[in-house]
Structures are given as structure tokens and as C-alpha cells.
Amino acid sequence: MFSGIIEEIGTVDSYNGETLVIEATQVLDDLKISQSIMIDGACLTVLEISKTNCTFTVETVPETRSRTNFDNLIPGDHVNLERALRYGDRVGGHMVQGHVDGVGTVRSITGDANSNLVVIEADQNIIGSIVEKGFITVNGTSLTVASCTGNTFSIAIIPYTLENTTFHKLSKGSQVNLEVDVTAKYISKLLEPYRNPFSN
Fold first, then answer.
1. Residues of the chain with pLDDT under 70
2. Chain segment 183-195, per-residue pLDDT in tens
3. What is the largest CA-CA distance in the chain?
4. Could you give all domains of the chain from N- to C-terminal order, each with its CATH number?
């Protein structure tokens, strides 16, 4: 479980479509093999750690690759990193599973003195679980939904988040990993039998 509060921006050292090696510093402090770590929103298991090279290694399976933008990763790309929560820690974001629901596409970015408004297009199965002022995880970052209309939703990015995550790298057309609030998923599942009671 994660909070969506990014600890560090890591750099892709290598990726062959399965084995992903990330260069990092802060998250290596107490990272151990077999622990979970969130990379751009996806919860993955640490397989190797090299303190000499300042890297850690994870494996991506077909299910992860099919639901994320990982197929686009190349050496030198930056990714958001967060270690798993520990019991007793403060949770500054929201309860994030690291189970990416799908990929969205940035449609526009507009800014003013103290924030950037990012509009993201997503499939209806994701949009259907998003509510205004609710939570959304974008590339692993816990954010509040500013608005949701049609097949798009918007989020406001404050300067601190922009500077300390990979959001400053986004542009129109960028693909981002999305995870909707787990509470919304459960509510949607519970209501499913009542949406079309004559379907059975």
C-alpha cells in the first residue's frame, strides 16, 4: 500500500521489456529485496539492489505492461518513486494500491502563477469511477480531481508537485498511468447488479 506522495524521481538505467533497472538514491536507504516499490504508479517487487551502481531491479509481467505506459520507457526517462507505507506513518495523500487501471492521455496543460491545470482523457471504465473533488493517482501521484466532464478529467498541479515529480516533463499527448480511488471501485462493483436488474 502507498500514499501517492512521491519520494524521489528515479532514472531508467535499462529496460528490455521485462527487466527494469532504475537509478535512484533516497529510496535505496532501506530498500530490501522482495519489498514492494511503486514506479510511476505501478507496484513492483524489488529483485536486485546495487548500492555500487545506485540501482534497483524489478520485473514487469505482461499484465503490468498491458495496463501501463511502460512499453514507452527508454534509458534516461524519469519515473516517480515511492516506497511502501509503514504502519504508523502519516498518510499525506490517499490509500493507493499501485494497481494501475489504465493509461490516460494528456490533452492540455495550462498554467498561471501558482498552479498548472492538466486535462487528461481516459477510457470510460476509468472515467466512470472518477468524481469531482475525489482522489486520482496519476503516475503514482495522489491528486484531487478538479473537474470531470465527458471522457476527460482535470487536475491542478501546485509548483511543489510540479518540481518534485515527473509532471514537469509532461506535454500534450503524454501518456500517464491512472489508478482510481479503491473506494470508488468497491462502490461501483456493489452497484453493478442494480444498474440493469433485468439483464439476468
1. 195-200
2. 777 777 777 777 6
3. 62
4. 8-83 (2.40.30.20), 102-191 (2.40.30.20)
